[in-house]
Amino acid sequence: MSSLWSRTRNAVYGEITRTAMELFLTRGFDATTIDDIAAAAGISRRSFFRYFGTKEDVVLGDLIASGDLIRQALEARPAGEDAWTALCGALHSVKDSAYDDETMLKIFRMVHETPSLRARSIEKHLQWQALLTPEVRRRLGADPADPWDVRADALVATVITCLDVAGEAWTRAGGQVPLEDLFDAAVDAVRPASCEPAAEISTGDPG
Amino acid sequence: MSSLWSRTRNAVYGEITRTAMELFLTRGFDATTIDDIAAAAGISRRSFFRYFGTKEDVVLGDLIASGDLIRQALEARPAGEDAWTALCGALHSVKDSAYDDETMLKIFRMVHETPSLRARSIEKHLQWQALLTPEVRRRLGADPADPWDVRADALVATVITCLDVAGEAWTRAGGQVPLEDLFDAAVDAVRPASCEPAAEISTGDPG
DNA sequence: TGCCTGATTGACACTCAGTGCCAGATCGGC
DNA sequence: GCCGATCTGGCACTGAGTGTCAATCAGGCA
User: Fold this and answer.
1) Where are the alpha helices (DSSP H) in A28-150?
2) pLDDT tens across B100-123, in order?
3) Are B89 and B161 members of one domain?
4) Which of A6, A145, B53, B96 places its Cα 20 to 30 Å from the Cα of B81?
């Protein structure tokens, strides 16, 4: 039952996020203390930590949630599709709305320029990797318990890294170029279209 | 002149590293405070921070130094070589000696299991990327100021990611397989040998 | 309506990382 | 032996994050 308790909790969660993001974007991430956030949101310092483990999680909280969406998108891909194509297709489903493009650009820049945020963002991406690897292993026909088989890990990590690179270039370019295009360019630089599908389960007729 | 001042400094630096690493590996990274390290090394708490910016830097201090070695190795690669091959070759020159394999395994595991260490390790790798990208851009013939060209960034980030994946697999496998082999396997999974050299400056005779 | 249980909250105290400041010691050159 | 530069230790401070405890409040039950 998600009655008053959890509804209140969600409301407070959203309120903290809104308040904190506004402070971050105006006076900067490091210059905003948790006392500032708590005071502005009308809660106690201690309560803040009951909603967010760290200050960084306020900014990157949605990231881990979208990791699960990507996993679902990956599993929904056609069964015969090779792992690389499926992975790229699934990553295309990352649409962090909830913010307009200009705000998104500010947030990206902030994450990019703040070491602790940058690091935590990458940690989240590592969690994505753990989420996606099993399905890729399955598609590659790899033994799930074989620690020597690095193919799936390499593929997943690479594609996510391409997304990172694209995001970085997107901020550098001031959001002038669609993120998708940059992602595609990064992916194509790593594995040109001329490449035949990497490791495939088999039985596939070429084409 | 690197006379007494810097010689003493280097000696103290090494002493702190040795002492701290011993504490880390016995009682754990998080369970070791900087006061512990300072006391064991016979210096003041304040002086510790004159040698290391953070506690993590004691463990990962050599990493940033090897970044420069990789850059040199990359620049020393044959001029005609395609960027991908040159990058992989340069990465092979990462040999963190100074520790035996068993100690190395413990350190890897510690870094892997400690979030703050993991994060900082990734930050260092980002610094590697910034170091290596210019040379790769040069090899690709990219405009140094063009923020839209993501090829070099994608290539560098991918190869470094492969090294990460290999390192992770190496710890999972208990160091049973040479790190180089795992790295090669990861690289080959991303871009099979059947691929033709990605983006090349040109004029190269095939071979 | 009144009570009980469980989850939430705020307040206080605490540890620890990291920084700024200042006085004293120490080395190198003169 | 003196002087400037550098290193050192000690002190105080901010800020993140945690443990604890009493007070509060929703919901179920008689």
Assistant:
1) 34-41, 45-51, 55-75, 83-91, 101-113, 115-140
2) 889 999 999 999 999 899 989 988
3) yes
4) B96
